[in-house]
Design brief:
heterodimer; A: mainly alpha; flat; B: alpha/beta; Amidase signature (AS) enzymes; D-Maltodextrin-Binding Protein, domain 2; 11-stranded mixed beta sheet
Chain lengths: ~100, ~475
Protein backbone atom coordinates (compact mmCIF):
# COMPACT_ATOMS: atom_id res chain seq x y z
CA UNK A 1 0.00 0.00 0.00
CA UNK A 2 1.35 3.37 -0.95
CA UNK A 3 1.45 6.16 1.63
CA UNK A 4 -1.25 8.79 1.42
CA UNK A 5 -0.53 12.10 -0.22
CA UNK A 6 0.34 14.99 2.10
CA UNK A 7 -0.02 18.70 1.45
CA UNK A 8 3.76 19.14 1.53
CA UNK A 9 4.13 16.41 -1.12
CA UNK A 10 1.84 18.39 -3.40
CA UNK A 11 3.84 21.57 -2.74
CA UNK A 12 7.06 19.71 -3.58
CA UNK A 13 5.62 18.27 -6.79
CA UNK A 14 4.37 21.72 -7.83
CA UNK A 15 7.92 23.02 -7.50
CA UNK A 16 9.25 20.14 -9.62
CA UNK A 17 6.56 20.83 -12.24
CA UNK A 18 7.26 24.60 -12.24
CA UNK A 19 3.78 25.55 -11.10
CA UNK A 20 2.83 28.05 -8.39
CA UNK A 21 -0.19 26.93 -6.35
CA UNK A 22 -2.16 29.13 -3.98
CA UNK A 23 -3.05 27.83 -0.50
CA UNK A 24 -6.56 27.03 -1.68
CA UNK A 25 -5.25 25.22 -4.72
CA UNK A 26 -2.87 23.21 -2.56
CA UNK A 27 -5.77 22.04 -0.40
CA UNK A 28 -7.95 21.25 -3.37
CA UNK A 29 -5.24 19.42 -5.31
CA UNK A 30 -4.22 17.39 -2.26
CA UNK A 31 -7.78 16.17 -1.88
CA UNK A 32 -8.38 15.52 -5.61
CA UNK A 33 -5.03 13.85 -6.30
CA UNK A 34 -5.42 11.66 -3.20
CA UNK A 35 -8.68 10.39 -4.62
CA UNK A 36 -7.06 9.37 -7.92
CA UNK A 37 -4.08 7.77 -6.16
CA UNK A 38 -6.42 5.90 -3.86
CA UNK A 39 -8.16 4.49 -6.93
CA UNK A 40 -4.74 3.53 -8.32
CA UNK A 41 -4.04 1.56 -5.17
CA UNK A 42 -6.09 -1.33 -6.56
CA UNK A 43 -2.98 -2.05 -8.63
CA UNK A 44 -0.63 -2.16 -5.67
CA UNK A 45 -2.09 -5.37 -4.24
CA UNK A 46 -1.39 -7.27 -7.47
CA UNK A 47 1.56 -9.60 -7.59
CA UNK A 48 3.27 -8.49 -10.79
CA UNK A 49 6.77 -9.57 -9.85
CA UNK A 50 7.25 -11.56 -13.07
CA UNK A 51 5.31 -9.32 -15.46
CA UNK A 52 7.35 -7.39 -17.99
CA UNK A 53 6.43 -3.68 -18.15
CA UNK A 54 5.02 -2.29 -21.42
CA UNK A 55 6.08 1.19 -22.46
CA UNK A 56 4.76 0.93 -25.99
CA UNK A 57 2.02 -1.33 -27.41
CA UNK A 58 4.01 -2.91 -30.22
CA UNK A 59 7.56 -2.53 -28.93
CA UNK A 60 9.65 0.34 -30.21
CA UNK A 61 12.56 -0.15 -32.55
CA UNK A 62 14.95 2.56 -33.64
CA UNK A 63 13.87 4.25 -36.83
CA UNK A 64 16.70 5.84 -38.78
CA UNK A 65 16.95 7.38 -42.18
CA UNK A 66 19.91 8.09 -44.41
CA UNK A 67 21.87 11.09 -43.20
CA UNK A 68 20.98 13.37 -46.08
CA UNK A 69 20.50 17.12 -45.71
CA UNK A 70 16.88 18.12 -46.23
CA UNK A 71 14.98 21.37 -45.88
CA UNK A 72 13.79 21.95 -42.32
CA UNK A 73 11.49 24.50 -40.71
CA UNK A 74 12.04 28.07 -41.83
CA UNK A 75 14.03 29.86 -39.13
CA UNK A 76 12.32 33.22 -39.52
CA UNK A 77 8.88 31.61 -39.46
CA UNK A 78 9.74 29.74 -36.26
CA UNK A 79 11.30 32.75 -34.53
CA UNK A 80 8.35 34.94 -35.51
CA UNK A 81 6.25 32.78 -33.18
CA UNK A 82 8.69 33.00 -30.25
CA UNK A 83 7.91 35.37 -27.36
CA UNK A 84 11.34 37.00 -27.85
CA UNK A 85 14.26 36.52 -30.22
CA UNK A 86 17.55 38.18 -31.00
CA UNK A 87 20.11 37.67 -33.78
CA UNK A 88 18.33 34.58 -35.14
CA UNK A 89 18.04 32.93 -31.72
CA UNK A 90 15.46 32.54 -28.94
CA UNK A 91 15.98 35.15 -26.23
CA UNK A 92 15.31 34.45 -22.53
CA UNK A 93 15.79 36.31 -19.25
CA UNK A 94 19.17 35.84 -17.58
CA UNK A 95 19.97 32.29 -16.49
CA UNK A 96 23.05 32.66 -14.26
CA UNK A 97 24.43 35.58 -12.21
CA UNK A 98 23.91 39.28 -12.67
CA UNK A 99 22.97 40.88 -15.95
CA UNK A 100 26.01 42.62 -17.54
CA UNK B 1 -26.71 17.54 -44.80
CA UNK B 2 -25.28 15.39 -47.58
CA UNK B 3 -22.92 12.56 -46.74
CA UNK B 4 -19.24 12.84 -47.67
CA UNK B 5 -19.77 10.00 -50.14
CA UNK B 6 -22.58 11.95 -51.84
CA UNK B 7 -20.56 15.18 -51.97
CA UNK B 8 -17.61 13.44 -53.63
CA UNK B 9 -19.90 11.82 -56.18
CA UNK B 10 -21.69 15.11 -56.96
CA UNK B 11 -18.48 17.14 -57.12
CA UNK B 12 -16.96 14.64 -59.52
CA UNK B 13 -20.04 14.49 -61.74
CA UNK B 14 -20.43 18.25 -61.84
CA UNK B 15 -23.79 18.17 -60.06
CA UNK B 16 -22.28 20.50 -57.46
CA UNK B 17 -18.98 22.26 -56.83
CA UNK B 18 -16.60 22.16 -53.89
CA UNK B 19 -17.16 25.91 -53.51
CA UNK B 20 -20.93 25.50 -53.26
CA UNK B 21 -20.55 22.74 -50.66
CA UNK B 22 -18.21 24.98 -48.70
CA UNK B 23 -20.77 27.80 -48.80
CA UNK B 24 -23.34 25.46 -47.25
CA UNK B 25 -20.89 24.43 -44.54
CA UNK B 26 -19.98 28.03 -43.71
CA UNK B 27 -23.64 28.99 -43.49
CA UNK B 28 -24.28 26.12 -41.09
CA UNK B 29 -21.30 27.20 -38.98
CA UNK B 30 -22.53 30.79 -38.85
CA UNK B 31 -26.03 29.67 -37.91
CA UNK B 32 -25.07 27.82 -34.72
CA UNK B 33 -21.43 28.47 -33.78
CA UNK B 34 -22.21 31.24 -31.34
CA UNK B 35 -24.74 29.09 -29.52
CA UNK B 36 -22.68 25.87 -29.47
CA UNK B 37 -19.05 27.14 -29.44
CA UNK B 38 -17.84 24.46 -31.86
CA UNK B 39 -15.18 26.23 -33.92
CA UNK B 40 -12.42 28.27 -32.27
CA UNK B 41 -11.24 29.45 -35.67
CA UNK B 42 -12.81 29.35 -39.12
CA UNK B 43 -10.31 29.53 -41.97
CA UNK B 44 -12.70 30.85 -44.58
CA UNK B 45 -9.98 32.16 -46.88
CA UNK B 46 -7.90 28.97 -46.89
CA UNK B 47 -11.01 26.83 -47.29
CA UNK B 48 -12.13 28.89 -50.30
CA UNK B 49 -8.72 28.55 -51.89
CA UNK B 50 -8.76 24.76 -51.45
CA UNK B 51 -12.34 24.43 -52.74
CA UNK B 52 -11.50 26.56 -55.79
CA UNK B 53 -8.45 24.45 -56.55
CA UNK B 54 -10.60 21.29 -56.48
CA UNK B 55 -13.15 22.96 -58.78
CA UNK B 56 -10.40 24.14 -61.11
CA UNK B 57 -8.93 20.63 -61.32
CA UNK B 58 -12.34 19.24 -62.25
CA UNK B 59 -12.84 22.00 -64.84
CA UNK B 60 -9.52 21.02 -66.40
CA UNK B 61 -10.69 17.40 -66.54
CA UNK B 62 -8.06 16.23 -64.04
CA UNK B 63 -8.71 13.43 -61.58
CA UNK B 64 -9.44 14.55 -58.02
CA UNK B 65 -8.84 12.88 -54.66
CA UNK B 66 -11.09 10.51 -52.72
CA UNK B 67 -12.46 13.33 -50.52
CA UNK B 68 -12.81 15.93 -53.27
CA UNK B 69 -14.84 18.89 -52.06
CA UNK B 70 -15.76 17.50 -48.63
CA UNK B 71 -15.71 20.12 -45.85
CA UNK B 72 -13.98 18.83 -42.73
CA UNK B 73 -13.42 20.09 -39.18
CA UNK B 74 -10.08 19.65 -37.39
CA UNK B 75 -9.64 19.29 -33.64
CA UNK B 76 -7.52 22.21 -32.51
CA UNK B 77 -4.62 20.00 -31.39
CA UNK B 78 -3.78 19.28 -35.04
CA UNK B 79 -1.24 21.65 -36.56
CA UNK B 80 -2.06 23.39 -39.80
CA UNK B 81 0.66 25.70 -41.07
CA UNK B 82 -0.12 29.35 -40.47
CA UNK B 83 -3.52 28.63 -38.84
CA UNK B 84 -3.94 29.41 -35.11
CA UNK B 85 -3.61 26.20 -33.09
CA UNK B 86 -4.38 26.51 -29.40
CA UNK B 87 -5.14 23.09 -27.87
CA UNK B 88 -7.83 25.19 -26.13
CA UNK B 89 -5.07 26.54 -23.88
CA UNK B 90 -4.01 30.07 -23.03
CA UNK B 91 -0.45 28.84 -23.19
CA UNK B 92 -0.67 28.45 -26.99
CA UNK B 93 -3.03 31.35 -27.69
CA UNK B 94 -1.97 33.17 -30.84
CA UNK B 95 0.49 30.48 -31.95
CA UNK B 96 0.55 29.68 -35.63
CA UNK B 97 2.42 26.44 -36.40
CA UNK B 98 5.26 26.60 -38.93
CA UNK B 99 4.27 23.17 -40.30
CA UNK B 100 1.23 20.99 -40.92
CA UNK B 101 0.34 17.63 -39.42
CA UNK B 102 0.70 14.71 -41.84
CA UNK B 103 -3.07 14.14 -41.64
CA UNK B 104 -3.69 17.73 -42.77
CA UNK B 105 -1.36 17.34 -45.75
CA UNK B 106 -3.09 14.07 -46.65
CA UNK B 107 -6.53 15.65 -46.39
CA UNK B 108 -5.50 18.48 -48.69
CA UNK B 109 -4.02 15.99 -51.17
CA UNK B 110 -7.28 14.00 -51.02
CA UNK B 111 -9.23 17.12 -51.99
CA UNK B 112 -10.91 17.64 -48.61
CA UNK B 113 -11.61 21.21 -47.52
CA UNK B 114 -10.52 21.97 -43.92
CA UNK B 115 -12.98 24.56 -42.61
CA UNK B 116 -11.44 25.35 -39.24
CA UNK B 117 -10.31 24.29 -35.82
CA UNK B 118 -12.65 22.88 -33.18
CA UNK B 119 -12.84 23.23 -29.42
CA UNK B 120 -11.50 20.55 -27.07
CA UNK B 121 -10.71 19.97 -23.44
CA UNK B 122 -7.40 21.75 -22.87
CA UNK B 123 -4.60 19.55 -24.26
CA UNK B 124 -7.27 16.85 -24.81
CA UNK B 125 -7.56 16.27 -21.05
CA UNK B 126 -11.21 15.77 -20.25
CA UNK B 127 -14.43 14.02 -21.18
CA UNK B 128 -16.85 16.92 -21.69
CA UNK B 129 -15.09 19.79 -23.54
CA UNK B 130 -15.75 21.92 -20.47
CA UNK B 131 -12.03 22.21 -19.67
CA UNK B 132 -11.43 24.65 -22.52
CA UNK B 133 -9.87 28.06 -21.94
CA UNK B 134 -12.35 29.31 -24.54
CA UNK B 135 -15.56 28.06 -22.91
CA UNK B 136 -17.47 24.80 -23.19
CA UNK B 137 -18.95 23.32 -26.36
CA UNK B 138 -22.63 22.41 -26.17
CA UNK B 139 -24.22 19.24 -27.50
CA UNK B 140 -26.14 20.15 -30.70
CA UNK B 141 -28.81 17.54 -29.85
CA UNK B 142 -29.48 19.17 -26.46
CA UNK B 143 -27.53 22.36 -25.73
CA UNK B 144 -27.99 21.95 -21.96
CA UNK B 145 -25.76 18.86 -22.21
CA UNK B 146 -22.10 18.21 -22.99
CA UNK B 147 -21.01 16.79 -26.34
CA UNK B 148 -18.48 14.58 -24.55
CA UNK B 149 -14.77 15.06 -24.89
CA UNK B 150 -12.09 15.72 -25.36
CA UNK B 151 -12.91 15.95 -29.09
CA UNK B 152 -16.28 17.54 -28.31
CA UNK B 153 -15.96 20.35 -30.86
CA UNK B 154 -15.27 17.93 -33.70
CA UNK B 155 -18.20 15.73 -32.69
CA UNK B 156 -20.49 18.75 -32.42
CA UNK B 157 -19.42 20.03 -35.87
CA UNK B 158 -20.67 16.81 -37.47
CA UNK B 159 -23.73 16.43 -35.22
CA UNK B 160 -24.79 20.03 -36.01
CA UNK B 161 -24.44 19.35 -39.77
CA UNK B 162 -21.68 21.94 -40.11
CA UNK B 163 -19.32 19.48 -41.78
CA UNK B 164 -19.95 15.84 -42.74
CA UNK B 165 -16.52 14.81 -41.44
CA UNK B 166 -14.19 15.74 -38.61
CA UNK B 167 -10.93 14.56 -37.11
CA UNK B 168 -10.36 14.06 -33.42
CA UNK B 169 -7.78 12.33 -31.25
CA UNK B 170 -8.36 9.48 -28.82
CA UNK B 171 -6.03 8.88 -25.86
CA UNK B 172 -8.50 7.19 -23.51
CA UNK B 173 -11.78 7.50 -25.41
CA UNK B 174 -11.73 11.09 -26.68
CA UNK B 175 -13.20 10.15 -30.07
CA UNK B 176 -15.49 7.24 -29.16
CA UNK B 177 -17.09 8.88 -26.10
CA UNK B 178 -18.15 12.14 -27.84
CA UNK B 179 -19.24 10.12 -30.89
CA UNK B 180 -21.53 8.10 -28.61
CA UNK B 181 -22.90 11.22 -26.90
CA UNK B 182 -23.55 12.99 -30.22
CA UNK B 183 -24.95 10.03 -32.19
CA UNK B 184 -21.98 9.57 -34.55
CA UNK B 185 -19.51 6.97 -35.75
CA UNK B 186 -16.18 7.57 -34.02
CA UNK B 187 -13.10 5.48 -34.62
CA UNK B 188 -9.97 4.95 -32.54
CA UNK B 189 -7.64 3.30 -35.06
CA UNK B 190 -4.84 0.86 -34.24
CA UNK B 191 -1.91 2.65 -32.62
CA UNK B 192 0.46 3.67 -35.43
CA UNK B 193 -2.07 3.35 -38.25
CA UNK B 194 -2.40 7.14 -38.51
CA UNK B 195 0.67 9.35 -38.23
CA UNK B 196 0.85 11.48 -35.09
CA UNK B 197 3.24 13.97 -36.72
CA UNK B 198 1.74 17.39 -36.05
CA UNK B 199 -0.68 16.15 -33.38
CA UNK B 200 0.20 18.06 -30.23
CA UNK B 201 1.27 15.35 -27.80
CA UNK B 202 -0.70 14.46 -24.68
CA UNK B 203 0.30 10.83 -23.92
CA UNK B 204 2.39 9.69 -26.84
CA UNK B 205 2.11 5.94 -26.30
CA UNK B 206 -1.71 6.19 -26.28
CA UNK B 207 -2.66 9.09 -28.60
CA UNK B 208 -4.19 8.25 -31.97
CA UNK B 209 -5.98 10.42 -34.55
CA UNK B 210 -9.28 9.18 -35.97
CA UNK B 211 -12.50 10.09 -37.78
CA UNK B 212 -15.99 11.27 -36.88
CA UNK B 213 -18.81 10.82 -39.40
CA UNK B 214 -22.56 10.32 -39.56
CA UNK B 215 -22.29 7.00 -41.34
CA UNK B 216 -19.89 4.08 -41.52
CA UNK B 217 -18.90 4.53 -45.16
CA UNK B 218 -17.92 8.17 -44.64
CA UNK B 219 -15.80 7.22 -41.62
CA UNK B 220 -14.06 4.50 -43.62
CA UNK B 221 -13.39 6.90 -46.51
CA UNK B 222 -11.79 9.38 -44.14
CA UNK B 223 -9.66 6.80 -42.34
CA UNK B 224 -8.43 5.40 -45.66
CA UNK B 225 -7.37 8.88 -46.73
CA UNK B 226 -5.29 9.62 -43.61
CA UNK B 227 -3.87 6.17 -42.70
CA UNK B 228 -0.65 4.56 -43.81
CA UNK B 229 3.04 4.78 -43.06
CA UNK B 230 4.67 8.14 -42.46
CA UNK B 231 8.39 8.48 -42.03
CA UNK B 232 7.87 11.58 -39.87
CA UNK B 233 6.39 9.45 -37.05
CA UNK B 234 8.78 6.86 -35.65
CA UNK B 235 5.83 4.89 -34.21
CA UNK B 236 4.05 4.70 -37.57
CA UNK B 237 3.16 1.19 -38.74
CA UNK B 238 5.21 0.18 -41.77
CA UNK B 239 2.38 -0.65 -44.17
CA UNK B 240 0.27 1.56 -46.46
CA UNK B 241 -3.36 2.43 -45.65
CA UNK B 242 -5.66 -0.62 -45.50
CA UNK B 243 -8.57 -1.04 -47.88
CA UNK B 244 -11.68 -0.29 -45.83
CA UNK B 245 -14.51 1.00 -48.02
CA UNK B 246 -14.25 -2.04 -50.30
CA UNK B 247 -14.99 -4.33 -47.32
CA UNK B 248 -17.77 -2.29 -45.78
CA UNK B 249 -20.49 -4.76 -46.78
CA UNK B 250 -18.57 -7.89 -45.81
CA UNK B 251 -21.04 -8.53 -42.99
CA UNK B 252 -20.48 -10.63 -39.89
CA UNK B 253 -21.59 -14.09 -41.03
CA UNK B 254 -19.44 -16.74 -39.39
CA UNK B 255 -17.74 -14.22 -37.08
CA UNK B 256 -17.49 -14.84 -33.35
CA UNK B 257 -18.20 -11.73 -31.31
CA UNK B 258 -17.58 -11.56 -27.58
CA UNK B 259 -20.15 -9.70 -25.50
CA UNK B 260 -17.97 -8.42 -22.66
CA UNK B 261 -19.73 -8.34 -19.30
CA UNK B 262 -17.12 -5.88 -17.96
CA UNK B 263 -18.04 -3.44 -20.76
CA UNK B 264 -21.70 -3.25 -19.72
CA UNK B 265 -21.59 -3.72 -15.94
CA UNK B 266 -22.24 -0.39 -14.28
CA UNK B 267 -23.82 1.17 -17.36
CA UNK B 268 -27.31 2.68 -17.20
CA UNK B 269 -30.17 0.34 -18.09
CA UNK B 270 -30.96 2.07 -21.41
CA UNK B 271 -27.33 1.63 -22.48
CA UNK B 272 -27.31 -2.04 -21.45
CA UNK B 273 -30.48 -2.63 -23.48
CA UNK B 274 -28.89 -1.08 -26.59
CA UNK B 275 -25.85 -3.33 -26.28
CA UNK B 276 -28.03 -6.42 -25.92
CA UNK B 277 -30.11 -5.40 -28.93
CA UNK B 278 -26.90 -4.84 -30.91
CA UNK B 279 -25.79 -8.38 -30.02
CA UNK B 280 -29.11 -9.69 -31.32
CA UNK B 281 -28.78 -7.69 -34.54
CA UNK B 282 -25.30 -9.10 -35.15
CA UNK B 283 -26.51 -12.63 -34.38
CA UNK B 284 -29.39 -12.16 -36.84
CA UNK B 285 -26.79 -11.57 -39.57
CA UNK B 286 -24.94 -14.78 -38.80
CA UNK B 287 -22.49 -13.84 -36.05
CA UNK B 288 -22.07 -16.10 -33.05
CA UNK B 289 -22.32 -14.14 -29.81
CA UNK B 290 -20.17 -15.44 -26.97
CA UNK B 291 -20.62 -13.98 -23.50
CA UNK B 292 -17.32 -13.49 -21.73
CA UNK B 293 -15.60 -11.56 -18.98
CA UNK B 294 -12.24 -9.79 -19.04
CA UNK B 295 -11.72 -8.87 -15.37
CA UNK B 296 -8.44 -7.08 -16.16
CA UNK B 297 -10.51 -4.29 -17.74
CA UNK B 298 -11.43 -3.00 -14.30
CA UNK B 299 -7.76 -2.09 -13.76
CA UNK B 300 -7.69 0.04 -16.90
CA UNK B 301 -8.79 3.28 -15.30
CA UNK B 302 -6.19 3.03 -12.55
CA UNK B 303 -3.36 2.30 -14.96
CA UNK B 304 -4.49 4.98 -17.39
CA UNK B 305 -4.71 7.74 -14.79
CA UNK B 306 -1.10 7.05 -13.84
CA UNK B 307 0.38 6.45 -17.31
CA UNK B 308 -1.34 9.23 -19.27
CA UNK B 309 -0.53 11.96 -16.69
CA UNK B 310 3.05 10.65 -16.42
CA UNK B 311 3.54 10.99 -20.16
CA UNK B 312 1.73 14.33 -20.15
CA UNK B 313 3.92 15.75 -17.39
CA UNK B 314 6.91 15.04 -19.60
CA UNK B 315 5.31 16.15 -22.90
CA UNK B 316 4.03 19.42 -21.43
CA UNK B 317 7.42 20.35 -20.00
CA UNK B 318 8.04 22.02 -23.37
CA UNK B 319 5.62 24.86 -22.54
CA UNK B 320 8.18 26.97 -20.77
CA UNK B 321 7.70 30.38 -22.39
CA UNK B 322 10.87 30.08 -24.47
CA UNK B 323 10.06 29.02 -28.02
CA UNK B 324 6.34 29.54 -28.62
CA UNK B 325 3.11 30.67 -27.06
CA UNK B 326 2.68 32.59 -23.85
CA UNK B 327 5.51 34.17 -21.87
CA UNK B 328 4.95 35.86 -18.53
CA UNK B 329 8.09 37.85 -17.88
CA UNK B 330 10.10 37.54 -14.69
CA UNK B 331 13.63 38.38 -13.51
CA UNK B 332 15.25 35.08 -14.25
CA UNK B 333 14.48 32.19 -16.52
CA UNK B 334 13.19 29.79 -13.86
CA UNK B 335 10.78 32.36 -12.48
CA UNK B 336 9.67 33.10 -16.06
CA UNK B 337 9.04 29.38 -16.72
CA UNK B 338 6.98 29.08 -13.54
CA UNK B 339 4.99 32.30 -14.04
CA UNK B 340 4.23 31.29 -17.65
CA UNK B 341 3.05 27.78 -16.79
CA UNK B 342 1.02 28.97 -13.81
CA UNK B 343 -0.80 31.56 -15.92
CA UNK B 344 -1.06 29.46 -19.09
CA UNK B 345 -2.42 26.10 -17.92
CA UNK B 346 -5.96 25.46 -16.65
CA UNK B 347 -6.83 23.45 -13.54
CA UNK B 348 -7.26 20.03 -15.14
CA UNK B 349 -3.96 20.29 -17.00
CA UNK B 350 -2.21 21.33 -13.79
CA UNK B 351 -3.85 18.43 -11.96
CA UNK B 352 -2.58 15.92 -14.50
CA UNK B 353 0.91 17.41 -14.67
CA UNK B 354 1.04 17.20 -10.87
CA UNK B 355 -0.25 13.63 -10.83
CA UNK B 356 2.23 12.54 -13.48
CA UNK B 357 5.14 14.31 -11.86
CA UNK B 358 4.28 12.63 -8.56
CA UNK B 359 3.94 9.17 -10.13
CA UNK B 360 7.37 9.57 -11.74
CA UNK B 361 9.10 11.09 -8.71
CA UNK B 362 11.74 9.36 -6.60
CA UNK B 363 10.21 6.94 -4.12
CA UNK B 364 6.88 6.57 -5.94
CA UNK B 365 8.00 5.53 -9.42
CA UNK B 366 7.87 1.77 -8.77
CA UNK B 367 4.63 1.87 -6.78
CA UNK B 368 2.70 3.83 -9.38
CA UNK B 369 4.33 4.21 -12.81
CA UNK B 370 6.20 0.89 -12.75
CA UNK B 371 3.15 -0.99 -11.56
CA UNK B 372 0.92 0.67 -14.18
CA UNK B 373 3.31 -0.36 -16.97
CA UNK B 374 2.93 -3.95 -15.81
CA UNK B 375 -0.85 -3.66 -15.69
CA UNK B 376 -0.60 -2.52 -19.28
CA UNK B 377 1.13 -5.79 -20.13
CA UNK B 378 -1.68 -7.68 -18.35
CA UNK B 379 -4.23 -5.76 -20.41
CA UNK B 380 -2.50 -6.65 -23.68
CA UNK B 381 -2.38 -10.34 -22.69
CA UNK B 382 -6.03 -10.29 -21.64
CA UNK B 383 -7.11 -8.89 -25.02
CA UNK B 384 -4.87 -11.32 -26.92
CA UNK B 385 -6.33 -14.18 -24.94
CA UNK B 386 -9.89 -13.11 -25.79
CA UNK B 387 -9.02 -12.78 -29.48
CA UNK B 388 -7.88 -16.41 -29.56
CA UNK B 389 -11.56 -17.31 -29.20
CA UNK B 390 -13.44 -14.42 -30.84
CA UNK B 391 -12.93 -12.06 -33.78
CA UNK B 392 -14.32 -8.91 -32.18
CA UNK B 393 -15.65 -7.69 -28.84
CA UNK B 394 -18.85 -5.81 -28.12
CA UNK B 395 -19.82 -3.55 -25.22
CA UNK B 396 -21.01 -0.09 -24.29
CA UNK B 397 -19.01 2.98 -25.26
CA UNK B 398 -20.09 5.08 -22.27
CA UNK B 399 -21.96 4.33 -19.04
CA UNK B 400 -24.71 6.87 -19.83
CA UNK B 401 -26.15 9.20 -22.45
CA UNK B 402 -24.86 12.81 -22.64
CA UNK B 403 -24.80 14.39 -19.19
CA UNK B 404 -25.66 17.97 -18.26
CA UNK B 405 -23.13 20.78 -18.44
CA UNK B 406 -21.54 21.40 -15.07
CA UNK B 407 -22.69 18.11 -13.54
CA UNK B 408 -19.20 16.58 -13.24
CA UNK B 409 -16.71 19.45 -13.54
CA UNK B 410 -16.03 19.76 -9.82
CA UNK B 411 -15.47 16.02 -9.32
CA UNK B 412 -12.52 14.82 -11.46
CA UNK B 413 -12.96 11.17 -10.46
CA UNK B 414 -16.61 11.14 -11.62
CA UNK B 415 -15.52 12.66 -14.93
CA UNK B 416 -12.72 10.10 -15.33
CA UNK B 417 -15.22 7.27 -14.88
CA UNK B 418 -16.99 8.23 -18.10
CA UNK B 419 -14.01 6.72 -19.98
CA UNK B 420 -14.09 3.43 -18.13
CA UNK B 421 -15.17 1.36 -21.16
CA UNK B 422 -12.92 3.03 -23.73
CA UNK B 423 -9.58 3.09 -21.90
CA UNK B 424 -8.61 -0.62 -22.24
CA UNK B 425 -8.27 -0.32 -26.04
CA UNK B 426 -5.80 2.56 -25.79
CA UNK B 427 -3.66 0.68 -23.28
CA UNK B 428 -3.48 -2.29 -25.66
CA UNK B 429 -2.87 -0.18 -28.79
CA UNK B 430 -5.81 -1.92 -30.47
CA UNK B 431 -8.65 -0.59 -32.63
CA UNK B 432 -12.23 0.18 -31.59
CA UNK B 433 -15.16 2.25 -32.75
CA UNK B 434 -18.44 3.56 -31.44
CA UNK B 435 -21.57 3.29 -33.57
CA UNK B 436 -24.95 4.81 -32.66
CA UNK B 437 -27.50 2.17 -31.78
CA UNK B 438 -30.83 3.24 -30.39
CA UNK B 439 -31.72 6.06 -28.06
CA UNK B 440 -32.11 6.26 -24.33
CA UNK B 441 -33.14 8.70 -21.65
CA UNK B 442 -34.47 12.03 -23.04
CA UNK B 443 -34.35 10.50 -26.53
CA UNK B 444 -30.56 10.97 -26.56
CA UNK B 445 -28.35 8.70 -28.69
CA UNK B 446 -26.55 5.65 -27.32
CA UNK B 447 -23.29 4.34 -28.74
CA UNK B 448 -22.26 0.73 -28.73
CA UNK B 449 -18.61 -0.11 -28.93
CA UNK B 450 -16.98 -2.68 -31.21
CA UNK B 451 -13.41 -3.61 -30.33
CA UNK B 452 -10.89 -5.59 -32.34
CA UNK B 453 -7.22 -6.49 -32.37
CA UNK B 454 -4.65 -4.28 -34.04
CA UNK B 455 -5.27 -3.83 -37.78
CA UNK B 456 -8.88 -5.12 -37.56
CA UNK B 457 -10.45 -1.88 -38.84
CA UNK B 458 -12.02 -3.51 -41.93
CA UNK B 459 -13.82 -6.07 -39.75
CA UNK B 460 -14.93 -3.38 -37.30
CA UNK B 461 -16.40 -1.24 -40.09
CA UNK B 462 -18.20 -4.26 -41.58
CA UNK B 463 -19.76 -5.08 -38.19
CA UNK B 464 -20.69 -1.43 -37.63
CA UNK B 465 -22.35 -1.39 -41.04
CA UNK B 466 -24.50 -4.37 -40.01
CA UNK B 467 -25.72 -2.38 -37.00
CA UNK B 468 -26.31 0.68 -39.14
CA UNK B 469 -28.48 -1.34 -41.53
CA UNK B 470 -30.36 -2.91 -38.59
CA UNK B 471 -31.22 0.62 -37.48
CA UNK B 472 -32.60 1.39 -40.92
CA UNK B 473 -29.84 3.82 -41.89
Amino acid sequence: MSPSLRREDVAHVAKLARLTLSDDELDQFTQQLSQVLEHANDMSSLDLENVVPTTHPFGLVNVVRDDVVRPSLDRDEVLAMAPDSEDGRFAVPRIIGEAP
Amino acid sequence: MKSAEQIVRDVRSGATTASAELDDALLAVKARNEELNVFLYVDEEGARRQAESVDAAIARGESVGPLAGVPIALKDNLCQRGIPTTCSSRILEGWRPPYSATVVDRLLAAGAVPVGKTNLDEFAMGSSTENSAFGPTRNPLDPTRVPGGSSGGSAAAVAADMTPLALGSDTGGSIRQPAALCGLIGVKPTYGLVSRYGLIAFASSLDQIGPFAKNVTDAAMLLEAIAGHDEMDSTSLPEPAPSLVAHINDGVAGKRIGLVRDLVDGADEDVVQSVLRAAEALAAEGATIVELSIPEFRLGLSAYYILAPAEASSNLARYDGVRYGLRVNADDVTAMNEATRTAGFGDEVKRRIMLGTYALSAGYYDAYYGQALKVRTMMISAFANAYRDVDLLLGATTPSVAFELGSKVSDPMAMYLSDIFTIPTNLAGDAALSVPFGTGEHDLPIGVQLLGPGRSEAKLFAAARVLEIAEGR
